[in-house]
Amino acid sequence: MFAAGSWAQTRPETASEQSGADLEVSLLTFGPGEEVWERFGHNAIEIRDRVSGEALLYNYGIFDFGQENFFLNFARGLMTYRIAAGNPADELPMYVAEGRWIVEQQLNLIPAQRAKLAAFLEWNAKPENALYRYDYFRANCSTRVRDVLDTALDGAIKAQTIAPSRGFTYRMDADRLMRPDPAVMLAMDAGLGPFADQRLSYWDEFFVPMEFMRHLRDVKVRDETGKPLPLVASEHTLASARLADPPAVAPDWVWRALGTGIAAALALLMLARLRNRAWARGPFAATASLVTFVLGLGGVVLIALWTLTDHVSAWRNENILLFNPLCLLLLPCWLGAFRAHWRPSPFAWRIGMAVAFCAALAFFVKVFPAFPQDNRFWIALLLPLHLAFAIALTFGRPPARV
Predict the structure, then answer these.
(1) Residue 48, strand partner residues
(2) Which of 77, 191, 298, 388 could form a disulfide with 310 if both were Cys (CB 3.0 to 4.6 A apart)?
(3) pTM for the full predicted model
């Protein structure tokens, strides 16, 4: 892993450190693309030699699907990315072809800082130094660029952005950026635990390249004489977007989820009441079986993410009370509901009550500060369903003997 304050200890002195007077440093930011892994946008550092005109684009977002055990490591949260240096003339047209906007910000670094930055990037891009442990929120392509530039500036960026906050969280940014892919957005939201709901400083929110670009405009640095000046010397749009920008805020679908959950629960209860008729019995049993399977399997996945992986953002996920693995124990009961003379067993009834209790608990624990996760959407959607299943099991119980 890269330690921001240890450049002098991690690489030898190079000739490029002797002078940075002929170098230009720019931050290039690329808008979101259509692929899932492109939705957060991207950025890179360009180092250009004014004399020769040659330039290198340093990109910390390189990964390879063909890497050994890539998908297993992805599931375990053990992803390895790398930095690579390329020719901007070769790489920028690829982003243009994808319909993504490109903005270049030339940065006001003094010559010694430019030389220091160029030397480190040259060292970092060597094959033996290029790999790093990737994390979506804390060690992605943008946070690496942030840390490298901040170290070159002796901490000036962090000092000016660590305290301010606009109140956003990792979840809010992830949801708004993934909004064009609703299924992926909802799956990601369900899998995020309370880690994703901490309020972020601007510094933390720089995991989003577009936010880093935006707030960099307000950072001040000093020249060789100590005079303050903006870090961004100039800003140019190199390419316009064909794709729409993501929304500025995350979608708030809580009331919509509550309406959907209540409507679905009432429909299930109606079918349960009328299940002596074949037209109602089949849809009721099929719906109950499918929903139970999805929720139970989802709970298994959430527990696995917490206990078996390094995905810190998925740990302690309160949605386990809603995506409950106990639901899988109800699957034989609901499959049996296809029969005309179905009666739930006492065991199934107890499991159903336990599942409904856990779902209600997910709502009531919101009053305690120890449960900060923002899972209102899932509570609103799934609590009515769990209560409906519990009532349906009660409907179907055989009469008690006296």
Answers:
(1) 24, 55
(2) 77
(3) 0.89
Q: What angle do CA 252, 246, 32 make, to 5 degrees?
A: 140
The owner of tokens 């601007």 is 202
To which residue do tokens 């390895």 refer?
A: 80
How far apart are alpha carbons 274 and 286 in whole angstroms?
15
Residue 54 — pLDDT band, cuts 50, 70, 90?
very high
Largest Cα–Cα distance of the chain, in whole Å?
A: 98
Structure tokens at 193: 């635990």
Under DSSP, is residue 170 helix (H, G, I), strand (E, B) or coil? helix
In degrees, to the nearest 5, what angle opens at C-alpha 162 toward C-alphas 156 and 168?
Answer: 140
Nearest to 337, CA basis, from 385, 271, 246:
271
CA 349 to chain centre: 38
Q: Do 284 and 52 touch, CB atoms closer than 8 A?
A: no
Please answer whether residues 173 and 32 qualify as being in contact, where contact means their C-beta atoms are separated by less than 8 angstroms: no
Structure tokens at 157: 């960026």
Q: What is the pLDDT of residues 127-151, one digit of tens each?
A: 999 999 999 999 999 999 999 999 9
